[in-house]
Amino acid sequence: MKILVTGGAGYIGSHTCLELLNENYEVVVLDNLSNSFEDSLTRVKNITGKSLDFYHADLLDKEQIVKIFSENKIDAVIHFAGLKAVGESVSIPLKYFHNNITGTLNLLEVMNDFNVKNIVFSSSATVYGDPASLPIKEDFPLSATNPYGRTKLMIEEILEDLFRSDQNWNIALLRYFNPVGAHESGLIGEDPFDIPNNLVPFISKVAIGSLPELSVFGNDYNTSDGTGIRDYIHVVDLALGHIKTLPKLFTNPGVVIYNLGTGIGYSVLEMINGFKEQSGKDIPYKIVDRRPGDIAACWADPKKAKKDLNWEANKTLADMCKDTWNWQKKNPNGYRESNREN
Ligand code: NAD
Ligand code: WQD
To answer: CB under 8 Å to 108, separation ≥6 — which residues?
Structure first.
């Protein structure tokens, strides 16, 4: 079985390529490296001792996608490629709509032309907006609170319309909660190009000393300690969720939707403490105003994925913090060659 992984050089994509190779899938990666390094894939090959084919290609260039499908007999696509910075999507919405929507349309058109109609799409818990109750189930109402989230919602709707028009499509919409952590080897992990937007990469940079302190966005939420609560999921558990989804896709299920989360919520202060314990480093922080657009709490009901896919997240908060720290300290400058320690 040959799987095309768009965005495969990125954070979740590289961890998924690793698990695909471990399961003996053939892997073809399409990535324009706009938010990643090819070195992630070199390391995936080193860890697994297996090879994959990499195309430095852009989903906005349809001819490049056609070339990949002409040269490979693809069985299914896992579609990670997209821009994901919520704040940037608010200030430059057209960039997000163009890249995420047009890129996906190009991909779907080529898949259709080559009669490859199996796709796993990286959706997000952001499509639930501010949920009326917790935990969040897949049939909860959907909404978007920013252009990034709207691209996820729009792509979900595009895929559902596509299935309505042609029942030969098999589509898995995977709604990720908050992916964190890194492969236990410490060789691959999350490597934001700029100052991180997300909590765990930011904590990690504070622990390594490249950022002075964390700003905690509000301690006046209606939560146990007043800080925001999220369902953090280890990226390896998340990658394994994709591995469990593929056989389901090959049973011709039509459109299926799954939450990929742990079902457990942790507060910002619990994350800081967890990271402190695992790293042995102090994490200086100050409480600041709430970040506009943030919700108080969000965690998944992951039972549907357990029942249908026999998948559940197994890694603990300690694993998430330990593996993030292992990656960070082995690679203080991420994949940037000149400062690599390992
Ligand atoms: P990432 O930025 O590390 O990976 C995305 C990859 O897509 C990058 O390697 C980037 O270079 C590539 N890419 C972007 N636009 C492209 C284009 N036009 N053509 C080819 N390649 C392109 O992000 P990630 O955290 O690994 O996220 C993967 C997917 O999961 C994204 O779709 C993201 O929206 C979604 N998601 C992420 C999170 C999260 O918190 N990390 C949560 C929910 C959903
Ligand atoms: C987590 C908690 C913050 C940074 C985002 C996207 C979402 C999804 C995952 C892609 C919140 C607090 C954060 C900081 C803080 N991505 N925080 N100081 O906002 O839940 O989700 O990433 O689909 O769409 O919106 O994740 O890691 O940014 O924040 O106090 O410097 O940490 O307020 O409570 P979020 P996050």
So the answer is: 119, 158, 159, 162
